[in-house]
Amino acid sequence: MREPLIRYPIVQYAYVVNDLDDAVRHWVEVMGAGPFFVSRNHRGREHTYRGVLDEAVFSYAFGQAGPAQVQLIQCMDDHPSIYRDMFAPGEEGFHHVACLVPAADMEREVARFTEAGYEVASTLHSYVPVAYLDCRSTLGSFVELHGLNEDVEELFREIRQAHEQWDGVTDPIRVRSKSSSL
Amino acid sequence: MITPPLLRHPVLQHAFVVPDLDEGIERWRRVLGAGPFVVIRDFEGRDLTYRGSPSTTRVDYAFGQSGDIQVQLIAQPEPGPSIYRDMYAPGEGGFHHVCALVPMEDWDRQVAAFAEAGYEMAASLTTSAPAVYFDCRDDLGCFVELYGRTERSSAFFASLRQMHETWDGVTDPIRAR
After folding, report:
1. Is residue B127 a contact partner of residue B45, using CB atoms and an 8 Å limit?
2. Which residues of B touch A27 (CB under 8 A)?
3. Is the pLDDT of residue B67 over 80?
4. B97 inside 8 A of chain A by CB
5. Which pLDDT does position B143 carry in this prediction?
6. pLDDT level of residue B154 (50, 70, 90 thresholds)
7. What does the alpha-carbon distance between residue A143 and residue A8 come to, in Å, rounded to a whole number?
8. How far is CA A107 from CA A12, A101, B45, B82, in A?
9. Which of A35, A155, A169, B95 has the fewest CB atoms within 10 Å around its CB?
């Protein structure tokens, strides 16, 4: 039996949504997830889609729900993207799981996926390199490998701590000074 | 104006429908390192209901761990109906529900909160603890499972985590309960 491709845990579950504010409200009011840190109209640095540089714009919301982080993503234009690969305009649903990979191990980890036959569908730079592997043929979803350094660790900690200290109602949408596209 | 959350207990499981349980386990192990998986085959939930009527649809379950999060895989070899067929035709698979453990002393209140908010109880059953599934697809795109937190269910979830933390990712990926 072969070794798993990755030995770093899943830390985030991500969903494509039609309207970021509606989706945030539902995840707060139904599931008690949040508060959500929102990054609107974000254009990923060095963002590629299927190997080509692309200027697609997305809005993101990140919030904690128990041990897992939830990410909500809204496409802000008609560019092709890994989100449009699964959901046409007006459609929404579960899109990817994300694992944090220590930055020094990132290149090797991505290579393990590509050698196993998974295509790098998208890349960008957010503090550190980020890669999205198209694993729909086996898992039904994309897998995000996000580099891990101190900034990223701090961001995840901040989102988790905000959740643990939260009453579920006050300021459900927050803006973080440092922008990110986790 | 935002209203207080219906659920005040953390989401601790994400569940996926797979066309074939063994193939699903191998994919989640091989790609993501989830596991080892505790497998329960041909399971017929006690007092199982689907959309308010008694049901005898059997399913195969696999429970595994990835980091802090538990992963459940579900295969349904028989036709149904079920909450799984509500989303996926035979041969299809994908994300299906999130699950939260609800302490039994808060159970009645928590279940009533979802029902009063207008979410339909799509299925219910009893294992070592009660389980109910609310159809939240309109708002969240998935079902929400509430599962009773008892000593036994807590111990089971703790054992999955412990096995995962001491596992090499290869040895005995499927375990009996």
Report:
1. yes
2. 140
3. yes
4. no
5. 97
6. very high
7. 12
8. 20, 10, 45, 43
9. A169
Residues of B in contact with A141 (CB under 8 A): 94-95
Q: Which domains are delineated in chain B?
A: 11-164 (3.10.180.10)
Question: Rounded to whole angstroms, what are the CA distances from B112 to A103, B3, B129, B134, B148?
Answer: 46, 16, 17, 11, 14
When mean pLDDT is compared across A73-87, A109-123, A163-177, B56-70, the lowest value belongs to A163-177
- Alpha-carbon distance of A81 to A132, in angstroms, equals 11
- Contact predicate A125/A44, CB 8 Å: yes
The answer, yes or no, to whether the previous bond of B81 is cis (omega within 30 of 0) is yes
Assigned superfamily of A10-170: 2,3-Dihydroxybiphenyl 1,2-Dioxygenase, domain 1 (3.10.180.10)
- Mean pLDDT of the residues in chain A: 93
Q: What share of chain B in percent tops pLDDT 70?
A: 99
Q: Pick from A68, A93, A172: which is nearest to B2 by CB?
A: A172
C-alpha triplet B12, B15, B16: angle, nearest 5° = 155
Question: Tell me, what's the pLDDT at A182?
Answer: 54
Q: Is the dihedral of CA A174, A75, B119, B52 positive or negative?
A: negative
Q: Does B98 touch chain A (CB under 8 A)?
A: yes
pLDDT tens digits for range A131-150: 999 999 999 999 999 999 99
The pLDDT, as a whole number, for residue A36 is 97
Domain definitions of chain A by residue range: 10-170
Q: Which of A97, A135, A139 is nearest to B94 (CA)?
A: A139
Chosen from A5, A8, A10 to mutate, greatest number of chain B CBs within 10 A: A10
Degrees to nearest 5, angle at CA B27 with B31 and B81: 140
φ and ψ of A66, to 5 deg: 65, -140
Higher pLDDT, A137 or A182: A137
Of B31, B136, B142, the CB nearest to A94: B142
